[in-house]
Amino acid sequence: MEERPKLKLVLTNTDTIIEIVGWFLIVAVWGFTLSNYQSLPNTIPIHYNGAGVADGFGDKWIILTLPFIATVIFVGLTVLNKYPHIFNYPTAITKDNALSQYRNATRLIRYLKVIIVVIFGLIAYQTISQANELSEGLGIWFLPLILGLVFMPIIFYLIRSARSQR
């Protein structure tokens, strides 16, 4: 592996806003889940099929794993984002393009962190709604939405990365 420049990136205003939104959403998902925990029945949906229909049920405490997993992933990606020189890139990293490639990649990770929290928040919301008989499953829209939310920023990143290589 080639030796890549190790740069200390300064957060732009946009990066700072994305980080703040992400942390706010983590707190919101925890708050929503904990505030609704007592009203849940003892058995809740814990797994959904591709069509968004609940096909597995378990104890209500399992709802707490959603904000927990979202938090662990968010914090893990936050730590990882401090080391952009170890990321995999679609182009060779040089001294000339390192700054733009690192900023582009760390911005992608920030967007994905927020998207992951939103996804887990939506699952918690829909699970609580279904457990309280306010809705039926995640809905047929859920899987296409998730795929779009995850892949659109990745595609945008790849295009932007290729353009900044020229």
Mean pLDDT: 92
Shape descriptor reads elongated
Fraction of residues in H or I helices: 55-70%
* Biggest beta sheet summary: 2 strands, antiparallel
Order of helices and strands: HEEHHH
Computed structural class: mainly alpha
The number of strands is 2
Low-confidence stretches: none
Characterization of this structure:
Helices cover 60% and strands 7% of the residues. It is mainly α and 166 residues long. β1 (43-48) and β2 form a beta hairpin. The mean pLDDT is 92.
Secondary-structure topology with pairs:
Elements lengths: L12 H25 L5 E6 L5 E6 L5 H16 L17 H34 L10 H24 L1
Antiparallel strand pairs: 1-2
Any descriptors?
166 residues; mainly alpha; 4 helices; elongated; 60% helix
Précis, in short:
By secondary structure, the protein is mainly α.
